[in-house]
Amino acid sequence: MMGMAAGMSTMDLIPVVSTFAMFAAGRAFEQVRNSVGYPYMNIKICATHGGISVGEDGATHQCNEDLALMRTIPGMTVLNPCDDVEAKAALKAALLYQGPVYIRFGRLPVEVIHEEKDFRFTIGKGEILRQGEDMTIFATGLCVQESLHAAEALEKKGIRVQVINLPTIKPLDKELICSAASQTGKVVTVEEHTVQGGMGSAVCEVLAGCCPVPVRMIGVQDVFGESGAAKELLHKHGLDAEGIGAQIESFLKEMV
Length: 256
Known about the structure:
Layout: H1 2-9, E1 16-20, H2 21-27, H3 29-37, E2 44-48, H4 66-71, E3 77-79, H5 84-96, E4 101-104, E5 127-130, E6 135-139, H6 143-155, E7 161-165, E8 168-170, H7 174-184, E9 187-194, H8 199-210, E10 215-220, H9 230-236, H10 241-255
Parallel strand pairs: 1-2, 2-4, 3-4, 6-7, 6-9, 9-10
Antiparallel strand pairs: 3-8, 5-7
Helix pairs in contact: 1-3, 6-10, 7-8
């Protein structure tokens, strides 16, 4: 499929290819690297079923490494929208963009956060969804809704958390990341992905150069997934609102 897309791209077509993230980023990594990335083909890879919320399909199909893999490919743009509105807008933006793009989609239904009529998606830009001065959460994909719910619960305990959606993993919105971290002085990253090499790692790379602050990375902690109900797996890995809130409270206590 990747080879066919590469050939079509040489004929001034804009191929859109789609399969599970485990296959698009995992099984086909060498083809994506050498046939899409290296010649800088104008191909859009729409990878579905990313993360552990694939659920019952288990570890072999729960791709928790795709963002890390794709962002290592030179010139590859990596997107991870958080809801239906952002997903459609991200695809439209990708089709207008000249160059290879990887877009991650999940399986589990999520809440709609954005108003479709007023929404505009810009590659490389994040957005502030909630203001707060005690800490900044950088979240992506499915974890954006859970982070917003966690922030709501924490506010009832007197903890005001800023929530920022990062739908573009590469290139990152460095200006927003540095500005937010400098304002709150503490950062938590939340992603349905391994903490090795994903969005959290990318944010830390930016902060190391502009605003070194304490960071807690919430994600899959260097383990494979397992078969189970999607929401139960998210809870087990601390990626639901309850788990995110608990880890933030623990992190704040460590900072005292």
